[in-house]
Amino acid sequence: MNKNGSVVTAPATPSSSCRSTSISGVSGVTSPNINLFQEIVIRLMLFAFYFYFEWKEAFVRVIHPEEMWLYKNPISPSYVPLTLLYPAVFGLVGLVIIGYFVRSRDFHDFRSAWLGFSLACTLNGALTDVIKVAVGRPRPDFFQRCFPDGQMNEDMVCTGDPWTVKDGRKSFPSGHSSFSFAALGFLSWYLFAKLHVFTERGRGQTWRLLAAGGPLFAALMVSISRTCDYHHHWQDVTVGSLIGLTVGYLSYRQYYPPIGSRHCFVPYGTEVISPNSNRKHVPKRDEVPDESESDTKTLLEGEDKDSKWT
């Protein structure tokens, strides 16, 4: 990147004063080219997988009368309904990614961000719904869903609305929690990198940590709300959050270096121009060695590049 933050592409003819390298996970190895059509097809397949299991009947787990107290909480509306959650999350992520693209004009980063985010959402949705159907754990308000008149029969046969009962058997893990941590977790990793929260450039600046960690806190509050409105048990929320957090991080790392890397703010495969001149021309802030970049620091020696957001 130049001093304004734009990505600099190496010239076709190498010169004696500079050399071009590519950022990758292993020193000296360039990330393979991305087959965009294949990536889109895979995401569509994951979404179809999610959609199929979203409508599929869950495993009917035997509920003994003596454990019914676990499922006798009152029915209440979601504190964070999907009609609010989806627009808020997609809108926020889109605003950040598009905003950075407008400032940097870096199409490679723009594409990588959307590929990573879409992978996090579709993969998380597929995994979460498969587990929901396989486990079939009743929700905390299942008794009211199953017996809306409050009268439980000996055979434990539900008399409530079939759709409400079917949804009532999909408590584990929490879909709100996994989606929030997958999507907003991805956004936090993205901001951690763009704001250099864990590199020598941004460490110790609290505003960066708070700004980048904000989406994770929002995901945490969404998860907690699912126990407050009696739609999930605490175990559902805990496991769902861990699934989402893991998927979000793995999806991010498919396209970006570690958040502690000196070049964490640019995706894999970005061309970087490093001068062979004396290190005295490198800004002082870049003279500090990046201990977290042990696998690529020899490849990426030279002038560090400025991020648009720093």
UniProtKB/TrEMBL annotation:
The chain crosses the membrane at residues 79-102, 114-135, 179-197. The keyword Transmembrane helix applies. Residues 294-310 have a biased composition (Basic and acidic residues). It holds the Pfam family PAP2. InterPro entries: PAP-like (IPR043216), PAP2/HPO (IPR000326), PAP2/HPO_sf (IPR036938). Gene3D superfamilies: Phosphatidic acid phosphatase type 2/haloperoxidase. GO terms for cellular component: membrane. GO terms for biological process: phospholipid dephosphorylation; phospholipid metabolic process. It is a multi-pass membrane protein. Keywords: Membrane, Transmembrane, Transmembrane helix. The keyword Lipid biosynthesis does not apply. GO terms for molecular function: phosphatidate phosphatase activity. Residues 115-252 form the Phosphatidic acid phosphatase type 2/haloperoxidase domain. Its main location: membrane. It is found in: Membrane. SMART domains: acidPPc. Residues 1-20, 276-310 are annotated as: Disordered. Belongs to the PA-phosphatase related phosphoesterase family. This is Putative lipid phosphate phosphatase.
